């Protein structure tokens, strides 16, 4: 008797796939709906992450340049000589040079898609986003042994987010300020 019941159940399972068992498993539609929801969630997460990383790249580039400018000021004071932070606007690099042109701090690079950009503020001959107010446009900002500096501003632009960052340098104190916009 038990053997007959097992045989009947086996025949039913092999022909219908379920037998006399209650409903179990998921339908194809349920699986497609769940996969669709997961796909939308992942797409939204990827988009938000990309925006966050792009904003972080611009801010980190600005902070790194500000650190380099502050280091150049300290070096000018401690070495008792002029130090310059030189900017290669086409290559997106910057470094510190001493009075004789020797490199005191290795070359750093801007983050991906961040560039020195012209803020279009009306200064004649300005093309590279490095605006120097005290001297001709030599793509460098200088610091002096007294702690003073050449007055100027740097403009960074991120092509992905279309946002600006401005770094300004005060001549009397050599102070560096960061602004998260075109200032």
Structure characterization notes:
This protein is α+β, with helices and mostly antiparallel strands and 183 residues long. It has a single domain (28-179), classed as minor pseudopilin epsh fold (3-Layer(bab) Sandwich), CATH 3.55.40. Helices cover 37% and strands 25% of the residues. The chain is built from two helices and nine strands. The chain has helices at 2-16, 28-79, and strands spanning 83-88, 93-97, 103-109, 114-116, 130-132, 140-143, 152-158, 163-169, 176-179. Strands 4, 5, 7, 8 and 9 form a five-stranded antiparallel β-sheet that branches. A hairpin with a 4-residue loop joins strand 7 and strand 8. The longest helix is centred in the first third of the chain and has 52 residues, at 28-79. The model has no long low-confidence stretch (mean pLDDT 80).
Q: How do you describe this structure in short?
A:
With 183 residues, this protein is of the alpha+beta class.
- What can be said about the biggest beta sheet? 5 strands, antiparallel
CATH class: Alpha Beta
As for the number of domains, it is: 1
**H/E element sequence:** HHEEEEEEEEE
What would you call the structural class?
alpha+beta
CATH topology: minor pseudopilin epsh fold
Helical element count?
Answer: 2
Rg from alpha-carbon coordinates? 31 Å
Query: Strand share of the residues?
Result: 25-35%
Question: Which range best describes the helical content: under 10%, 10-25%, 25-40%, 40-55%, 55-70% or over 70%?
Answer: 25-40%
CATH 2nd-level architecture: 3-Layer(bab) Sandwich
């Amino acid at each position: 008797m038990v053997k007959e019941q097992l045989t009947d159940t086996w025949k039913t399972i092999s022909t219908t796939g379920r037998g006399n068992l209650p409903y179990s498993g998921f339908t194809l539609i349920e699986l497609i709906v769940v996969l669709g929801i997961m796909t939308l969630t992942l797409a939204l997460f990827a988009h938000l992450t990309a925006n966050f990383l792009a904003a972080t790249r611009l801010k980190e580039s600005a902070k790194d340049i500000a650190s380099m400018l502050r280091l150049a000021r300290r070096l000018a004071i401690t070495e008792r000589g002029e130090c310059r932070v030189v900017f290669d606007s086409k290559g997106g690099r910057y470094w510190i040079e001493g009075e004789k042109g020797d490199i005191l701090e290795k070359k750093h690079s801007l983050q991906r898609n961040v560039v020195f950009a012209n803020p279009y503020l009306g200064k004649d001959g300005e093309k590279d986003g490095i605006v120097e107010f005290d001297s001709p446009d030599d793509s460098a900002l200088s610091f002096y042994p007294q702690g003073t500096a050449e007055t100027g501003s740097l403009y960074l632009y991120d092509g992905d987010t279309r946002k600006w960052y401005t770094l300004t340098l005060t001549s009397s104190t050599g102070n560096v300020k960061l602004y998260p916009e075109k200032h």
